[in-house]
Specification:
This protein is of the alpha/beta class and 225 residues long. The protein has helices at residues 14-17, 82-92, 110-118, 169-178, 196-208, 218-222, and strands at residues 30-40, 50-56, 79-81, 96-100, 123-127, 139-142, 160-165, 186-191, 213-214.
Amino acid sequence: MVRAMDRSARPETVSSVYPTPHTPHPTPPLLPIVETFHSVQGEGLWTGVSAYFIRLAGCDVGCPWCDTKISWSTKPHGKVAVADLVQQAQAANPFMVVVTGGEPLMHDLTPLTQALKQAGLRIHLETSGAHPFSGQFDWISLSPKRFKPPQPEIYALAHELKVVIATADDLAWAEAQAARVPATTVKLLQPEWTSDDSQQLVFDYVKQHPDWRISLQTHKFLGVK
């Protein structure tokens, strides 16, 4: 005798007969890193403050006076997982983490900054603004360059405008850049390190224009990173 099918029984689903393939965890984000180190911020408004630096590789701005040309190419530098960068920054216990380069905005900084934020760290960005903005920051230091001007949207986000001065022509460029940032943005002129003339230019200009401040690379005077 053939038994009638129990219609109250729940039929097997396709997934119970043929289990779905295991979905692997996403690969942790990796970034090309030139170096990481714990020091103090050497320039700008936050000079002298304990800072952990994450220097990313890659830059296409090409400043002739650049003192970190080793960062221009990503090829010589290994990639580091975001989780490892966060762990290193936490271990240093700095007041802030500074994401710099190279030009850090050549990379999507969202995963890195999200992870640093989740770890309770304060995050600063040093950028020329030449690439689209990404990430979450407590402080943005915009240092625009004539060789590759900033993306328009970055100006409104700048907490600090830091313009390197090599010649008198750069002072006019600085004023043009200052006209594009909010009134609350701190405005700084930084002498080009190898030029004695630029130091005098900046000194004289700031005396006559009190809305500007001088930014010096104090880490070079101290002989530290």
